[in-house]
Amino acid sequence: MVNINFVPDDYIQNNESSRTNLMYLVLFAVVMSALGGTFVTIKTRQRALNAQEQIVNKKLAKAQEAIQQFEQLQAKRRTMMKTALTTAELLESVPKSVLLASLTNNLPPGVSLLRLKLIQKDPRARQVKAPTNRYRQARSEEPVTKAVSREKLLETYIDIAGLAPSDRQVAAYIQSLSCSTLLDSVALVESKEHKIDDAVFRQFRLRTSLSKDIQLTKEEIEKIREQVQNIE
């Protein structure tokens, strides 16, 4: 039996062409959608990377500012020590200049001095009592301190203020000062947190006093001053 196709060949070819074109359009749409999604993903990641880069740049800028401020503190410390040494030498070259040099030599790494105050007091002023009779009054007026200079009778108290990275450096500084033969005792008056931008430091205050009857040789004085010059 012979099959007779009553559908024209042109109609069949047009249908096949339409299906082929539709398939191509679908494939083109899929490819364009993938390219569009890839482009959007790349742009999103690029924006996120730019935002992270800006954050990192801001942190770097703040870190550079903190480093500059720390360097300024170091320069201020050196200038202060030079001024203090010059002033101390004008008043009394020994032991004050040696004392200031010793305070600088004992500084742990990262510790800076902000303020250094020397106070001299006469201990006799706290022990004045009214004489009970003329005999005691006459004895109290006797010049018993003729052989002792006024400078040796004065008690020197030292108030120290500075910055340290942590309490560990403060404790190390107190221990170094306690081992010094120039000082009697070292007491921690205050230690609190101090922020400079994002950097956190410990602001501390110490109080100590100069030892009495200090006997230093010329060689020891020159050695301490050479240590200060090496630090500078």
Briefly characterize the structure.
57% of the residues lie in helices and 20% in strands. By secondary structure, it is of the alpha+beta class.
List descriptors:
Alpha-Beta Plaits; 20% strand; rod-shaped; alpha+beta
Strand content range: 15-25%
- Which spans have pLDDT < 50 for at least 5 consecutive residues? 140-149
Morphology:
rod-shaped
Q: Quick check: average pLDDT?
A: 76
Describe this structure in words.
The chain has 232 residues and is an alpha+beta fold. It has one domain (11-126, 149-232): Alpha-Beta Plaits (2-Layer Sandwich). The protein has six helices and four strands. The protein has helices spanning 9-91, 93-105, 134-140, 150-153, 167-178, 218-231; strands spanning 112-121, 155-164, 183-196, 199-210. It has a four-stranded antiparallel sheet with strand order 1-2-4-3. Strand 3 and strand 4 form a beta hairpin. The longest helix is centred in the N-terminal third of the chain and has 83 residues, at 9-91. It is rod-shaped.
Layout of SSEs?
Blueprint: H1 9-91, H2 93-105, E1 112-121, H3 134-140, H4 150-153, E2 155-164, H5 167-178, E3 183-196, E4 199-210, H6 218-231
